[in-house]
Specification:
Helix content: over 70%
Number of strands: 0
Number of helices: 2
Strand content: under 5%
Largest sheet: none
Shape: elongated
Order of helices and strands: HH
Distance between the termini: 86 Å
Radius of gyration: 33 Å
Amino acid sequence: MNALGWQIGAILFGGSFFVIAVYIAKILNTANKTVEMFRQTIDYNKREIDEIIKSATNITKDTEEIISKFNNLIGFLNIFNFLGDKVKIKSKKKVKTKNKIKK
């Protein structure tokens, strides 16, 4: 039996291709099962997820309301120069500070 080098290489290449194809199929099957379990979890907990989102929205609105009332109180106290400009809460704005290093 005379086998040439390219024939042995072709058999090795075909065998490795088959092994890689089986491995990729197993990975895709596992990924499919994971996505399916995730979808079932989402479907099962849909109502609870919606309630959590609504609660988060209500908490945000309540927080904004509290900050607004606190700012009104601070403004009222500023009339009497009780606190001056020492206290002020800003809502939904990022405060940027510049740090200067003195040499």
